[in-house]
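Q: Sequence in, structure out?
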Amino acid sequence: MSILQLRAWERDLTVLAVVGHRDAEAAAALRTLHPHGRPTPTVGLVAELGRRGLMAGLTTAADLRLAVADSPLLATGVVRVEGDGPWSERSVVAGPAVWEALVGLGGWPGDLSADPLPSPDWGLDEWLDLPGVVTARRAIEARRAYALGAFGDRPGAAAARLAALVRVSGNEPVILRAPQLSSRDVQLAMVVAAVRDLIPVFCETGDSSSPLELSVPYVTLPLLVARGSSALTAYPRALIRVPVAALSHHDRVAGLRSAAPDLRLEDARSSASAEPRDLALAATDLRGRLALGRDQTDVSRHRTFSDAVERHLSGTAPQGAVLVHPRATWDDLVLADDRLGLLRDAVRRVELQGALHARPDQPEPRRGERGLRMLFHGPPGTGKTLCAEVLARALGRDLLVVNLAFLVSKWIGETEKNLENVFDAAERASVLFFDEADALFGRRTEIGDARDRYANIETAYLLGRIESYDGVVVLSTNLRRNLDSAFARRLEFIVPFDLPDAAARERLWRLHAPTWARLSPDVRLEDLAALYDLTGALIRNAATAAGYLAAGDHAADEPGDPDTPRKLPTITDEHLARAIEREHDKAGMAYPGAPPLLHTVGNGHGRRLGGLAHA
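A: Exactly. Output:
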């Protein structure tokens, strides 16, 4: 019990409170002395022992009353006085889970429960060298009475980081979860953990919008707390904030290597939002499949592992947003050189920010000097979303796509609250992408009623929030003029997206041609590009649809013998024409007719395509 600054009588009282649980003869003796036959001492018995000089420092019942009033032993709940009736007949009992801890059993007080999930300490090398983490580690190693807080939209992941920090500090952690934390449960849990020679990490899993006040003045262990909000007070303890932002590329690669060293996963795709805990859980899933004789190749193992990581992250995105692990690269973009130059300059700016502002000799950046704000504007289907994905991958981050329909609320204050949750989630490891942003970031209007006034307040809030955001925000709109003019001065990059010309369309056709099919030698992509004025999205849809049409025709001609080598489906002009006609119909565009080659085949008779005869 050295974690409490106990006086001699308090140590004696602790032994007396638990002796009935540990010793049958002592329990029988206590029953005979208790007015209600319980195996616990009474306050009267304690006072009598004090009068006889067996409770150091206490000689009378009045002394006991005064001692109890300022005792850290009772303040922490290690020992309690229970029952009704006369003071002298009330029972002195051990607090919940205290005697279990003393006899080696499990259990934790209140609503606290031990987190069974792993909290690996690998994949955190560069994170452990961050100044705030180093300071926290020293406090844990010295077992100083500081409060260490890790705050973020994933309290469980933040708690796992703190547990890893405890472990590398030479101690054994335990993560204790509860929907809401309370000072009394936390104090008692710290005592129980110390009895078991553990350092607890408290994780608040419920709504953390309200400030949390934890007063743990008597226990000299460090107090580690993970929760969504940073509104934490632990007076008289000093609070050290432990950073839990996105891990570096080095740590992510090291984590992939350490998750399953024998499975060569370092080349697997992994989300930038993934924590070592997510990788450990995904590796467990993968081993389960391997035990059944599945996924023996490197490609299949990597795919299974990546899918498992995505599954564990699927519920971490806030309401109104979808977390996307980007796969598109610069090679997937078909843009003019000046547009590509703007995007590469934006990536370079973010990289320089991370290098410059990480240096300790640099002054604190001013408002707006950190982060990046961009606007993509142009017609639908011209590649704005694809560019956001490429940008996120180039920066080594995920893409958090905001669904505005779920964010905007008719209730006052709810829209701002939803947006704040999105910004908090994006700070972890994501590029924040607002598609069709004019629905939320539109022009401020003349005030005609209360709703107009509040809509203007929402816009003003968003303007300020975006300007103060330290991450990357991309706004996308089909019509730039629909955005509030005040956004322009808050944007570092404005990238226009134009409809592709014939040369760009030919590149898009070649880019989106299915890899699992081949083009017929008769197909002339340059003719398709010249004839059909389609956007990149429509070209992608048509190319994919033509591939499946070819695969359908090919399946009927495939030999039934499994030993016969399989050939790739062949995409013909006819497949392409049918797919292109469908895209025109879906888009409400006039179809200009089939490619010229289809008009001249056979004996000069046109083919029937999509139910229409083309002569």
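Confidence is low (pLDDT under 50) at residues 444-454, 601-615.
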